[in-house]
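For reference, the entry.
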Amino acid sequence: MRWDDRRVVITAAGRDFGRTLAIALADLGAEVFLSARELTAARRVRDEIRRGGRQRVHAFACDLTSPASIRAFASDVAEHTDRVDLLVNNGSRYLAGPDLLSAADDDVVDTIASGATGTVLTTKGFLPLLLNSPAPDVVTMVSACGTPGHHRSDAHDAFYAAKSAQAGFVEILSKRLRPQGVRVISLYPPDFDNADPLSEEWHTTSRQAGDALSAHSLVECVLFAVAQPRDCFIKAFHFEQA
């Protein structure tokens, strides 16, 4: 599947999986609008992609804890395009520590705001552009921490709370947006390996049954779901934790 006619927005694309997905989709031909909390991080990834020969990539600052910043991001993207075909809600601050008392109050607020409020407001902000697309999709990177009963992560309770909020949001969003033709697809991965997509390791990392889940496989899950005919709504990907 080529993505030459697709316009994609990715939050928190300055590093880790957001960067990986931005590079992968740009390499397939998509026009990518990527954001990071710090504009320098977004521009660094934009420049990496452009050095690879893909010029249709744009960098923006977006603080997912700030409603004004999210509104500005959506408005800035709207100045470049009249539609968005895929919104990837990738942004959510990770907070480590299985002890509730170990995190400062500000860190708790920031973690829940970026993952929960940020996801809701970003989707809200880009919904008008999504509805202009003939084939709109919303992909949200949740986490195994957002599944009921999950307890195998050392993430802080606030991260669990943020991911559970994301899970509740995409659940109802899927039902309410389906009549408008918007597919809402969510991924619930456990901890996974994220090889640099610009390195040889991206192509050589083993992806056998006994291996940890890889970012390469997660990218392929996104590609698979979006490539399906529009009557096929793949609501969620859940993964066995090794």
About this structure: The longest helix spans residues 105-131. Residues 7-238 form a domain with the Rossmann fold fold (CATH 3.40.50.720). The CA atoms of residues 2 and 196 lie 22 Å apart. The longest strand covers residues 31-36.
